[in-house]
Design goal:
2 copies of one chain form a homodimer. Chain A is of the alpha+beta class and 214 residues long. Chain A contains 9 helices and 4 strands; from the N terminus they run E-H-E-H-E-E-H-H-H-H-H-H-H. Chain A is globular.
């Protein structure tokens, strides 16, 4: 199984953390985004949309980070774990799917503010996009329940994707976390998970370092 | 089971078509969007995001159209059909999930042009949003294969959602379909499905009629 990714890409980090949590064997191939490798004929065979992350599992190829994470759990979690990352019960699974769908729109809102593209070009962040980003954080805060994680007492792929989304703000000087106490507590808890540092902590820190030194 | 919807909402139409195709029993409750019922305390208990469609199945509540469709198939398709609307094979399911994820972003791009909100306010369409909408159509055209439907020889929930997305253009004077011959052929085929007229054909025609007579 080959995992095509770039360490700067939050959806790549999320899939990476899923792969490492599942403990499946895979080869990691960094796609040279700066050189346009994502638009090469070879890569478009793997993901016709020309985006990372992507997956090649035997002859099967797949794009779209959330679909990749769901696939990895559906195909491999039973062999390794108890189906906790992606529950099999229809209603529990539905709640994870709902959060993944919401996360996709929260990601767009937060990225519009914390735009890696703009930062790479040394452009200032667009301040008018801060309010929609904060609205996404408020929505996430309101979706937290009495449980430590979004859907219960253990993390699922929804928690992993939401973490990669809110960590975009770690690349900026955003300091409004105290307005979202449940989310802040959850974020700190997520950052103690065994596969976090390798898959997300380190790449986000290195991205922040890169952006600071452009 | 209660289905909360509004006939003008494409994601509501898509879930409606899934419900009708599955043949499950449900009560349909039209949410009075114009009166702000989606923000009522009662409705927020069903979907805290305050959006249609939403579902209440016993004590279980769920928002987000695509998650609802996946849930309906996971929970009810085995009892009624052969799992064709939402395949159970991990790789076939992954391809449907990938298309659903892509459709969510295509929907945003096409809606930015064919904005029901703007049309309800009798504002002209934003012509600079036409190019991104056409890019979404090109992407969809490129995702079609030699099969009549997006993933094979029968329609899945991905086909149903993509249909509700591209039908946004039926509300406008868009006449560029001939640039997307595979997609045009697929759209015509989808419009012959037994549950199409009731769930999508009629509500889209009535929406177009409403917008024309504002």
């Amino acid at each position: 199984m080959e995992f095509y990714y770039h360490p700067i890409s939050p959806p790549s980090q999320a899939v990476w953390m899923v792969l490492n949590t599942l403990g499946v064997n895979y080869g990691a191939k960094e796609v040279q985004l700066m050189k346009g490798e994502q638009r090469s004929k070879e890569f478009l065979k793997i993901n016709p949309m020309g985006k990372v992350p992507a997956l090649k599992d035997g002859e099967f190829t797949l794009g779209e980070s959330r679909a990749i994470a769901m696939y990895l759990c559906t195909a491999y979690e039973p062999k390794f774990k108890e189906g906790k990352l992606y529950p099999r019960d229809a209603q529990e699974m539905a709640r994870v799917n709902m959060l993944l769908n919401l996360d996709a729109s929260f990601y767009n809102k937060i990225y519009d503010y914390a735009s890696i593209g703009r930062m790479l070009q040394r452009q200032p962040l667009e301040q008018e996009n801060l309010a929609p980003a904060k609205e996404a954080l408020s929505n996430l805060e309101s979706l937290m329940t009495e449980y430590p994680y979004f859907t219960g007492d253990h993390p699922t792929i929804a928690d992993i994707f939401i973490l990669s989304t809110v960590k975009l703000l770690d690349l900026t000087d955003f300091n409004g976390w105290s307005e979202y106490p449940k989310l802040m507590k959850w974020k700190k808890l997520m950052e103690t998970l065994p596969q976090y540092e390798k898959s997300m902590g380190k790449p986000v820190r290195e991205t922040a370092e890169l952006l600071k030194n452009l």
